[in-house]
Write a structure and sequence with these properties.
Blueprint: E1 2-4, H1 12-23, E2 26-32, E3 35-40, E4 46-52, H2 54-57, E5 68-75, E6 80-87, H3 90-93, H4 102-137, H5 141-176, E7 186-192, E8 208-214, E9 220-225, H6 230-241, E10 246-250
Antiparallel strand pairs: 1-3, 2-3, 4-6, 5-6, 7-9, 7-10, 8-9
Helix pairs in contact: 4-5
Amino acid sequence: MWRYQMTVKGSEQELRWLNHQAQRGQLLRHIRGNWYQFQKTTTQYQVFSEYVSGAVATEIDDQHTPFKLLAQLQLTKPAVQVIYTGTAQAGLQGTRVDHQDAPLQLKIALAQRGHLLNVMNIRLVVGLILAVIVIGLNVSDNVASWGMFVWLIFTFYPAWQASRIHKQANALRVITQQYDDAWRPTMHVFLKNMPAELDTEKVTSLGAWVYVGQDHHGMYWYDLKTLASAMEIKQSLQPVVGDSVSISIVSWLGLAPIGFI
């Protein structure tokens, strides 16, 4: 059985999905792009994934371990292989391994997003060329309308897929603090009842802070370039400033501050 799934290869999201399939008796056997092949099994497996170099990957078949090699996927950007293994041993199924590979996952996510956007652009150009040909053939309006509808779906489906990968890439940027070439919207943060300026060093993980100003009643205003949501900012700030401080956030879209809605 083949199933389609768009996610960052080797990511936690992909592993959760693969293990969900394994719990349903569908064990991973092969991956081709975003298509995953599964085989029915009555054995309970736990699936793991790992990034390895090509030299290591070629030796995995010969290793005698409690882990069964399920699939291998060669990536080009970056040049790395993703190895998928599984184990049926009960003592190992609860094992959680922290790979510390978020920077590599970010590179993979950005490469996948770029590929999908390139596919969209190619389909857009090809569709425009076909549209000119169809117009020259004087086809009926009904056929032309349906053709236009199919072309739009076919063209912008990769853009929708890229948006899903983009969300995962943003989450990885927050984890890795790697914001090169990334656009970060500005959130306006208001702190009421503050006795002194905010120690932004304690919340640098949220993004780039800029002090804007203050009034005579303990209200401080900061601009924050971040990929975090307003709720995530508030949850991170509250333990730092204390419960007595009221936090209001105006998003970069100019929406009302949290707490004033």
